Amino acid sequence: MSNSNGWGLTARLISKHFGALGDRVSEAIANFDPETATEADRDRLADTLRGTAQKLAAARSSFEKERQDVVKLRELIASDERAAETLGDRLAAGKISESTINLFCDELEANKARLPTEEQEAADAEEYMSELQKIVDALSKQLADFDAAAKKAMQALATANAQRDLQHVRAERQEQLNGLRGLQGNSSALNALTRRAQNVSNEAAGMKIVADIGQRPLDQAAELDAIRRSAANPGTAGESALDRLKRLSGKTAA
Question: Are the CB atoms for 106 and 79 separated by under 8 Å?
């Protein structure tokens, strides 16, 4: 007895704690994979509907059997009642024995006594069948409603996923654009390159200034030499090549 009680307590503890654990695991799975969880819920509902429909089919068969039993019993009673009307004459004529009449009457009375029971069994079978029919109808509607709700939920989930993906794409694009703007405004390499170009430009400008300063005395010296040459040969200033040839050959222009 103690072992039995111990196993019973163990079973109740397992049912209590692991049953709750099963509910939490089912909820976690539903949150992790709602599509599969939805399919599992539908399969469970469909299985319930199939099982109830099978019970309904069996109940219909049972009711039909009970109904046929009542119909046959009523027909037998009615036939025996009609036959009883002629049995008195046959008994008086000696065509049938009294014991046979008593047996016939016993069966007729037993059938009449059994008829209410058969009728009640048929009524109970019909009520049971009707209740099962209501359950099947309710389960069918529940399954249809579930399918409609599941379809709507899946469409909503697909839309939400698409919106989420779109926002991810937008965020990535914004991050890329911000990176490019940061590269343009805050890149140390780019800033160094810009400073290098400016330094080189400044260096070139300085060298030009120095070169211009060094070139100025040379230009001035050249100008002085030109002045001196012009003063030393005043007659030949502006002399053309033909005039120069004539002058050197001793010929004067006509």
Answer: no
Tokens representing residue 240 in the block: 């053309």
Buried b / exposed e across 76-96, counting CB within 10 Å, b at 16+? ebeebeeeeeebeeeeeeeeb
Counting the structural domains of the chain, the total is 1
Percent share of the chain, pLDDT over 90? 28
CA 231, CA 229: separation in Å to the nearest integer? Answer: 5
Residue 164 CA to residue 178 CA, distance in Å, equals: 21
Q: Does any domain span residue 239?
A: no
CATH of the domain at 127: 1.10.287
Helices assigned H by DSSP within the chain: 2-32, 34-92, 98-186, 188-232, 241-249
173 assigned to some structural domain: no
- Residue 132 counted as domain residue: yes
- The answer to whether the beta carbons of residues 46 and 143 sit under 8 Å apart is yes
In a domain, 231, yes or no: no
At 200 the pLDDT is 84
Residue 115 belongs to domain spanning = 5-150
